[in-house]
Amino acid sequence: MGCDTFPPDVNGAANFASRLGAGLTERGHEVLVVAPAFSRKRGRFIEDHDGSRFAVERLFSLRWYPHDWLRFAMPWNSQANAARILDSFQPDVVHIQSHILVGRGLARQAVKRGIRVVATNHFMPENMIEHTLLPKFVRKTAIRMAWKDASKTFALCESVTTPTRKAAVFLESETELTDVHAISCGIDASLYSQNMDKPAENRIVFVGRVTGEKHIDVLLRAVATLDPSLDVKLDIVGGGDQLSALKQLAVSLGIRDRVDFTGYVSDQELRSILTRASLFAMPSIAELQSIATMEAMASGLPVVAADAMALPHLVHDGENGFLFTPGDASDLAEKLTRVLEMPWEQVLAFKKASLKLIVPHDIQRTLTTFESLYRGESVTDPATDVSLGETAP
């Protein structure tokens, strides 16, 4: 499995790769993840991830300083590293989680050796472009070039997947690909607990990278306009380069005493924060799926999310939450207020709807589908975008 980001990095792509590696190991497969080293220590190690132990080959890497944590493997060593690793491990299949550096080398060397290649796209140029040094007037051109470059690597793959049908359609529109599979990243919902009693206080929670593309400033501005009688508290869970700026924004908005910037937390702490919350908010406009939103739904939370990219696949407006106009703090505030002021019986209905809508995203279904792709079998994409009156097959 080739990754440009992997734990201890904290992001959706890294989390998915870790859970996939752990799940495949539990099913008896031998897994080797290839990823940049997170320190000067490099080589092949047996590591613990998501309750499983499997091999991870850590490549020499350097820090990309415009980003708060990103490290990258050397592009000029990509082919040589891939050749060495493939010849020593001799895999039956290569699954790349990124086309950029590690995946690029593995895909090309695997094809030379007649090894099946499967790719999953987690990439949105908008999520990375602000961490470059490119001036704004050339960014649109850079994004077009990025997708053209992605097409070259994905063209080598027997199967290409992405987490949702909308993300698949988007990927096909930006590249020359066809027949992109929509396969949910999946979660183990049994790990999350729900509080079906009315909470003692109104707590809104956001979970994710504290970076510009998440539009957390919109959430802060919305919370600042809420009726003071609601006495809302806001938990911002995660770390990132915008942490200091957002803390200062909270001060200027007069809500700093009501916002808890937790930074990075353990899985156990995250689940506790979700369980005690009243609702979950996701203002990001570039989510290919949003594992954080899925975790909130598994915790039985109503969700208020931007009506953008894949979020409408998870948030069914008026059923388990509401969608708001992206970037519109006033509309977000109105939707937050609707949830916080609705009768408890209706809140319970939203909570139960979240729990039902997350069922089709079971990670065991995801693992089974990828196993079929690894064997070169044709698959029917698991149905995840179902209505409350349906049961996913």
From TrEMBL:
Residue span(s) of domain Glycosyl transferase family: 200-352
InterPro entries assigned: Glyco_trans_1, Glyco_trans_4-like_N, Glycosyltransferase_grp1
Any one GO molecular-function label of the UniProt entry: glycosyltransferase activity
Keyword terms: Glycosyltransferase, Transferase
Domain Glycosyltransferase subfamily 4-like N-terminal: 10-190
Top-rank taxon, per record: Bacteria
Transferase recorded as keyword: yes
GO annotation terms (biological process): carbohydrate derivative biosynthetic process
Classification via Pfam families: Glyco_transf_4, Glycos_transf_1
Name of the protein in its database record: D-inositol 3-phosphate glycosyltransferase
Organism taxonomic ancestry: Bacteria, Bacillati, Actinomycetota, Actinomycetes, Micrococcales
